[in-house]
Amino acid sequence: MKRIISANNLLLVGIVVVGAAVLGMATSGQFFGPVSMTSFFRFVSVPILIGLAQMITLCVGQLNLAVGAIGGVAACFTGVIVTSWGVPPWIGALVAVLTGAVLGLVNGLLVVGTRINGFIVTLAMSQILIGVQYALVGTRTIERKAWPELAAFGRSEILGIPTIFLMTLVVAAIVALYFAQTVSGRKLLASGGNASAAQLAGISTDRALIVAHTLSGLLCGVAAMVSISFLPGVNTTVGGDWLLPSFAAPIIGGVALAGGTVAVLGTVLAAMVVRLVDAASPIFRFDAEVVNFVVGAVVLGTVALGKLREVQASRHASRIRSLRAEAALAEVKR
After folding, report:
1. CB atoms within 10 A of CB 201
2. Who's near 277: CB < 8 A, 6+ residues apart?
3. Does pLDDT of 2 surpass 50?
């Protein structure tokens, strides 16, 4: 894992501070008012969670294009069982999390069982799950008045900070500890960093893929539960706009597409940056297309810069090896 205080994290902290200051000045300080700040922290919870979900699959060299579809099905299924089956709302919230985990497990089993690239598997699954989501709710919206306890949780605050945001930070801390302190977490990193070496060390890369997809789905389920708690209702639009933010947060946060790395704090900070861009949209009258263009361009630029650094590092290492070989040869000739 990368150091917590890295250059990238410091840069992201600076961007968050400057971005917040700009929005504060543009709104004559209203952005820092209790209503605006509460709204910001409440709505940034989902981008953080789906960013962490994507980060876990990226760390094993995989992609999860079904992030939004998993969350959408989990949210809609919860709405159906609460309103139609009479399941208590808190049990429904747990079902949302478990549904996400089960769907993630299915993704992992399909990737390992078929040996098809995870990109294709999760892309296909996303389309299947979108159909399932429509089958669950059709064109209707299940309003949140059906789960008043969850809605109250979504509105609740602790010392002026939304409870769901604090819960999200706890989840992020658990993810960080998982990769830093557990054998399972280290196996995922080893599998993503060098699959061949991991297999020689006795690590099951297949199991690592299944665990990664399952954990990714579980976090999508948590994001679905959070969405249910503060959205006016659930319908087929839930999860529809999750894909780009799910990639933007970890990639901008410092996670390598090649696998083998995680950046929990970077992902959290990058999600805040993306949320600041969204918050700036109505203030500066940016179109949604402009926001998506900016976020997409930043993601692409970050990936390109990372690749450039990898090439430079590889060339530098190659030059060092050549110099050492020449020095050794000269020593032999003496």
Report:
1. 11
2. 19, 291, 294, 295
3. no
- The verdict on 247 and 295 lying in the same domain is no
The rounded distance, in Å, linking the Cα atoms of 96 and 76 is 9
CA nearest to 262, candidates 204, 187, 331: 187
The whole-angstrom separation of Cα 235 and Cα 137 is: 6
| Dihedral sign computed on CA atoms, order 229, 235, 236, 237 | negative
Query: What confidence tens digit (pLDDT) does each residue in 22-57 have?
Result: 999 999 999 999 999 999 999 999 999 999 999 999
- In contact, 224 and 127? CB cutoff 8 Å: no
Q: Are residues 202 and 81 part of one domain?
A: yes
Cβ 224 vs Cβ 72: under 8 Å: yes
- Domain-embedded: residue 2: no
For helices 7-26 and 243-253, what crossing angle results, to 10°? 120
End-to-end CA distance of the chain: 44
Q: Is the pLDDT of residue 214 over 80?
A: yes
Boundaries of domain holding 267: 8-286
Closest by Cα among 187, 214, 215, 181 to 201: 187
Q: Are residues 328 and 274 in the same domain?
A: no
- List Cα–Cα distances, 315 to 193, 307, 319, in angstroms: 20, 12, 6
Q: Is residue 1 part of a domain?
A: no
User: Are residues 322 and 262 both part of a single domain?
Assistant: no
Any residues with CB less than 8 A from the CB of 222 and at least 6 apart, and which? 49, 96, 97, 100, 171
Q: Is residue 162 within a helix (H) or strand (E), and if so which, with residue range?
A: strand 161-162
On whether both 322 and 254 belong to a single domain, the answer is no
| Degrees, nearest 5: CA angle 219-175-36 | 70
**Looking at the domain assignment, is residue 3 inside a domain?**
no
Q: Answer whether 186's CB lies under 8 Å from 179's CB.
A: yes
Place of tokens 């789960």: 147
Residue partners of 130: CB distance under 8 A and separation at least 6? 69, 72, 236
